[in-house]
Amino acid sequence: MHTTPRRITTPITADLLRGALELERTEHGVLPHRLPARARAQCADPQLAMVESQPSGVRLVFRSRATTVELDALRTKRTLVGAPARPDGLYELLVDGRLTGRANVPDGNTISIDMTAGTAEHRPGPPGTVTFTDLPGGLKTIEIWLPHNETTELLALRTDAPVEPAPDPGRRVWLHHGSSISHGSDDAGPTGTWPAHAASLGGVELINLGLGGSALLDPFTARAMRDTPADLISVKIGINLVNHDVMRLRAFTSAVHGFLDTLRDGHPTAPLLVVSPILCPIHEDTPGPSAPDVTELAEGRVHYRAMGDPADPTPGKLTLRVIRDELSALVAQRTKDDPHLHYLDGLALYGETEATTLPLPDNLHPDAETHRHIGKRFADLAFRADGPFAP
């Protein structure tokens, strides 16, 4: 008679998670956060609350002889009214660093966002289970990378063999902050986002604070980074400041200095890389804000357009070209007293050539192929022997 092997349930605790700054106990299980409670308490923006709870770069990591792994999770997926349905978030399983399986959790909660009306509707749903079978035998390191674009509450981890926390791999920790492009935007899976791809190529442990729509030089984000142990730090600055139209050049320069000062309070000598925006044609010379094109949305497509006027005479209006020039000059000024500070022009990651061969599908966000390109370019430039993150 065939019997199902007994499953061992292992509590999901912080020592099994990497890439999260905090683990919140919820009614259902635990919720990984990429910003700590103190930071979250200082901002009531629902956009930030949504994206920081989407576990981009967060993964369960453990050692086990298990050949079957089950994970119960309650996801919260967002959909856009009038737009094509987004693909379900992927859970990607790695065995000893090799991608072995992909799966998704059905059901779950849904947030339906109407970008035209500026409203959102929350529809609750049941949790689901993602199952990986036929894993190779023997003791191994198992990683489950959580969906980068779905809030994910973890309910239960079951295996057919005991689980123990994986030992520290001894790799350097890279702490990165940026916008939805760093968050993962329209990439298909969590290990394919450009920071995850670059971290894999560079042989480092990633903590990804890419926060969609929320890279706004917030002091609470700077303090969270200041207090997070890291060997390498990067901040990608620009696109959200333009497409939200939140400040002028005078405030921008001061805010960047303050952000970097705070990082240096906690990491005085760590290599610190300031990355300017990749090419985004709609905002190169046109200030923000940007908004979805309602005519395109009515036809089931999502495209963004710049709402500003390139001829606007308002002093200090930010465009991507203005930001690149200012960041380059600011870093050059600071490096006189900070030899561990570096600058990377975002056009070296994605510029005019790439815009021709790998255009941004919605005029704002890279697709999966472009994420891989940006990740490789970053690794080539940052982790090379004479790069800012050289071994």
How would you characterize the overall build of this protein?
- The protein starts with 7 loop residues before the first strand and ends in a 9-residue tail after the last helix.
- The model has no long low-confidence stretch (mean pLDDT 94).
- The protein has helices spanning 37-40, 46-52, 180-183, 194-202, 219-226, 239-243, 249-266, 294-298, 320-334, 352-357, 368-382; strands at 8-10, 17-18, 22-25, 30-33, 59-64, 69-80, 91-95, 98-103, 109-114, 119-123, 128-132, 140-145, 151-159, 163-165, 173-178, 205-210, 232-236, 272-275, 290-292, 304-306, 341-344.
- 43% of the residues are buried.
- It is built from eleven helices and 21 strands.
- The radius of gyration is 21 Å and the shape is globular.
- Strands 1, 6, 9, 10, 11 and 13 form a six-stranded mixed β-sheet that branches. Strands 2, 5, 7, 8, 12 and 14 form a six-stranded antiparallel β-sheet that branches.
- It is α+β, with helices and mostly antiparallel strands and 391 residues long.
